[in-house]
Amino acid sequence: MTYVELLAQLFPARRFGVVLGLERMRAILDRLGHPERQLGAIVHVGGTNGKGSTVAMIAALAAAPGQQRQRVATYTSPHLSCLRERIMIDGAMISEPAIVAAAERVRDAGGGELTFFEQLTAIAMVAIAGAQVDVTVLEVGLGGRLDATNVVDPAVAVVTGVALDHEAVLGPTLGQIAAEKAGIWKPGRPAIIGASGLADAVPALVAAAHIAGAYPAVIDDLAIAAVPPVGLPGGHQRRNAAAAIAAIRALGLPVVAAALATVRHPGRFEVIEPPATPIGVPRVILDGAHNPHGAAALADALRERGERPVLVVAVSADKDVPAIAAALAPAVRAVIATRYQQDRAMDPAQLAVVFGGTAAPDLRTALAAASAIAVAHGAPILIAGSLFLVGEARTLLLGAPTDPMLVTDPPARGSLDR
User: How do residues 382-395 score in pLDDT, each as one tens digit?
Assistant: First the structure.
């Protein structure tokens, strides 16, 4: 099987949608010889926002020079432009031969009956186990309790915070969503409760930790104030960093401050400076904020830095678009609404009405319109609202590695299999 053939194999698995539950994962991992038990010390990271940034910080801290553990792997989702981004080993994307070899093992064990995310999770566990790493940082895909990643026995679990998102699947209330996120707590293990969500959810996370027999540790203002300089902009990233530091300490590792100062995470307040941008396009900020809480954090980061950009926005139709607009639109000087090239994207004309802007049919056209306004005002362009849009922007503006076939997660629909 080639890498392109792997993409073609995974694409039809999207038809299963998002099916939460652990039975299928446990069965295939048993047939594969339990690679989930061969991942080194595991840090399991869930939460509504900040998961990806927190994973990046934990990985950077765990791999910092001088650490007793050196080999670090991460598994994250979704990817921006290349499926291989999801599996990083020693800071580099997994190679095509390595992911194909892992996929063949999963296929031969009956992986074709799994959902898209289940297959990828099994592939990641096989590949990372084969790399013999010391630390693996796993990001929850959706929820936590019934997420495909929740088949591991982590050394420490982190919930970055809880806010409203995916209510149709996880439940309409903050308490219900918190209960699903807290499903990654394990008895006898540290449970790090971050500050990157709504404060009202914290008591539920603490209570769930006690019920599970885990040891809760809540990130508070003192912990955030003690965070050394962080390379990722915004006060919300200091909150994420505090959770990452707590996880590293729970592993028994020292905190190497220089690792936080230099950490980068593509698509999270990622700044592209001219001349890297195409001619006529000014400085560009990429941020995948895709729900109201994430949009508010992005708006705060813009205000902290004195930025008032021209926004190019695309949002998935199943999101709380009015709330995203209410948080983000006041922080920008103009809005160009567009779409990413998938069916899940909201129609640009409808999106423009909600945001109070104008519409463009695609990213390239939107960038041209935004550039004219931005240049006239000496302002940057902000591309936000969807990680899928950010992925397209990284391909267009940076020539980022991009798969020849678009294979992405299906939309989250349905209800929990309780």
Answer: 999 999 999 999 99
Cα 202 from Cα 220, distance rounded (Å): 11
Angle at 296 between CA 294 and CA 298, to 5 degrees: 70
pLDDT at 211: 96
The sign of the CA dihedral 226, 230, 232, 235 is positive
What residue type is assigned to position 132 of the chain?
A: Q
Structure confidence by residue, pLDDT tens digits, 55-83: 999 999 999 987 666 899 999 999 999 99
- What's the CA gap between 389 and 392, in Å, rounded? 5
Q: Tokens representing 266?
A: 């593509």
Residue 416 has pLDDT above 80, yes or no: no
Q: Which CATH fold would you assign to the domain 270-398?
A: Protein-Tyrosine Phosphatase; Chain A (3.90.190)
Helix (H) or strand (E) holding 137: strand 135-139
Closest CA to 319 of 382, 396, 231, 386: 386
SS3 call for 270: strand
Which amino acid does the sequence have at 211? I
Where along the chain do its domains lie? 3-262, 270-398
Q: Record the pTM.
A: 0.91
What beta strand segments (E) does 276-361 contain?
Answer: 284-287, 310-313, 334-337, 358-359
What is the side-by-side strand order in the sheet with 41-46? 92-93, 87-89, 72-75, 135-139, 41-46, 156-159, 190-193, 215-218
At the top level of CATH, which class does the domain 3-262 belong to? alpha beta
Distances (CA, A) of 66 to 63, 144, 155, 260: 8, 33, 21, 14
- Which residue reads 């463009």 in tokens? 360
